[in-house]
């Protein structure tokens, strides 16, 4: 085993040296900073998705190699370090929490026998307080959707004291077709499970039980189980309130809980639809023991900067982001057990690196007054952790970052004729986005599934939360030489057969034309954002406007 490890390390070092040499050669072939090279994007994706990098799992060796590779590319481009202590690395302190098998949940009604629940089958949970043991013996309070939204005159808590209690609630948000009420059918952040945990913790709850319904969550219990049944990583605690048991429960369990309380789950759901809803303490307690293994570690964001030319505005910047982590290796899986993450998100990283090269090669007289920041972030697959940390510990004050353009999981399948920029319409920059799309011959495609809340599932969201106008850039469904049905079929095939599976591997027959176009589109948007007289803002009334102010 020792010799095998030495051999692997030697191969890794040699491969990095070869890739660096190739980068230098390719860079010498094309010095036009405004021209994006599809072959360079291909080369980055091929390396980052190779078996050598072992799926770039956070806290695994392949992730460290990827970070070193990205930092080396930034250095070769001549970009200035934007990380800690004059380096390209921003250290991100984390812990990994593993819920152990001796964790137990029991529902204890005031009258009648207790009901023992089975971990993974009936519930999933993690201890967000990052302690090895927690014991709960507390009443359960039904709080509807668990939402506090003054702009919609909505408060599910109505002054109730949840301190030391367990919150029971539905995922998603009140049903509506009115775009001015929770944005109608489009999901807002209030409907996301992450918000539910944050808000109930702010109200003092020690535990939260989110009721799973496939139609409300937009995914089945198997997704909840797979996402929460393994190790869960968190940013190391920074003082915000956290839950001892952040949990989901099966719908059938919720039905039993409702029956114990003398009601039924459908009636509870209807009650939760009203502004007049008031929290209800149920005649049932949760008795739980949460046993966890807690292991601290440090991951890295990789950050670089091209300084602006205007002494008065170089402290302001445009930010480009993409996550470089994926799922790593699953030792328990037979056969191919490397989650290579070629599309997700080798492609975004390849675009980010090519944008960095293009900006660095821009002639001095053509460089913008504002600075350009590049951040390859970690921990996206564990809940946007690296970008969250970047937003909280930005090397540039967040109020001086005019725009974040993010790239995540783009399909290298041809030349796109439309583009998705969901969230751009929420900013004052949208007219420029429309003009630039027209210049590129691209039709802006609206979010095909607004009810799924995709805006809140990628790294741009972390930057939006701290006030930075942010959105992701991706192809739509219409590609040159094909109709929309073909593009829709490709997207479906990827989701069903390759997304978060070992088969998400690099292919020689991929066409990187579209990724180059998306990169060039982002370059042009960044150039405009970096030269506009005023900083970009959120549209009046947007949920992130307050954070911007």
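^ structure tokens above, recovered residues below v
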């Amino acid at each position: 085993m020792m010799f095998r490890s030495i051999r692997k390390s030697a191969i890794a070092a040699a491969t990095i040296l070869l890739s660096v040499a190739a980068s230098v050669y390719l860079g010498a072939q094309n010095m036009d900073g405004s021209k994006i090279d599809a072959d360079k994007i291909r080369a980055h994706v091929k390396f980052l998705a190779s078996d050598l990098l072992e799926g770039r799992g956070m806290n695994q060796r392949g992730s460290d190699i990827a970070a070193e590779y990205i930092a080396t590319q930034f250095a070769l481009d001549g970009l200035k370090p934007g990380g800690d202590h004059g380096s390209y690395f921003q250290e991100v302190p984390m812990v990994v929490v593993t819920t152990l098998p001796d964790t137990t949940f029991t529902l204890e009604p005031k009258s009648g026998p207790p009901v023992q629940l089975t971990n993974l089958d009936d519930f999933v949970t993690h201890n967000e307080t990052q302690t090895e043991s927690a014991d709960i013996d507390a009443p359960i309070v039904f709080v509807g959707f668990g939402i506090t939204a003054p702009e919609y005159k909505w408060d599910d808590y109505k002054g109730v004291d949840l301190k030391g209690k367990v919150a029971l609630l539905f995922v998603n948000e009140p049903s509506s077709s009115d775009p001015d009420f929770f944005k109608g059918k489009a999901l807002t952040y209030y409907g996301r499970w992450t918000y539910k945990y944050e808000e109930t913790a702010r109200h003092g709850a020690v535990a939260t039980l989110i009721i799973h319904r496939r139609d409300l969550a937009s995914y089945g219990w198997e997704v909840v189980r797979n996402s929460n049944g393994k190790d869960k990583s968190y940013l190391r605690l920074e003082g915000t309130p956290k839950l001892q048991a952040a949990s989901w429960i099966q719908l059938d369990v919720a039905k039993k809980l409702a029956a114990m309380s003398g009601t039924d789950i459908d009636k509870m759901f209807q009650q939760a639809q009203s502004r007049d809803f008031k929290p209800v303490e149920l005649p049932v307690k949760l008795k739980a023991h949460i046993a966890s293994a807690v292991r601290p570690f440090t991951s890295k964001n990789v950050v670089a900067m091209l300084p602006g030319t205007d002494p008065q505005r170089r402290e302001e910047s445009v930010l480009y982001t993409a996550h470089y982590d994926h799922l790593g290796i699953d030792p328990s899986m037979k056969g191919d057990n490397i989650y290579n993450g070629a599309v997700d998100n080798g492609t975004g990283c390849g675009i980010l690196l090519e944008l960095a090269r293009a900006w660095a090669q821009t002639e001095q007289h053509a460089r913008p007054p504002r600075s350009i920041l590049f951040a390859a972030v970690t921990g996206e697959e564990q809940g946007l952790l690296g970008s969250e940390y970047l937003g909280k510990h930005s090397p540039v004050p967040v109020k001086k970052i005019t725009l974040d353009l993010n790239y995540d999981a783009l399909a290298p399948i041809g030349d796109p004729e439309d583009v998705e920029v969901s969230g751009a319409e929420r900013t004052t920059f949208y007219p420029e986005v429309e003009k630039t799309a027209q210049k590129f011959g691209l039709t802006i495609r609206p979010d095909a599934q607004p009810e799924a809340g995709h805006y809140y599932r990628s790294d741009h969201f972390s930057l939006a939360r701290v006030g930075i106008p942010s959105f992701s850039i991706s192809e739509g469904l219409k590609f040159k030489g094909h109709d929309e049905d073909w593009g829709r079929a490709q997207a479906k095939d990827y989701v069903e057969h390759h997304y978060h599976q070992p088969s998400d591997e690099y292919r020689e027959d991929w066409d990187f034309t579209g990724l180059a176009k998306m990169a060039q589109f982002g370059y042009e948007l960044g150039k405009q954002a970096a030269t506009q007289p005023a900083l970009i803002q959120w549209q009046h009334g947007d949920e992130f406007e307050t954070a911007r102010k």
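The chain has a mean pLDDT of 92.
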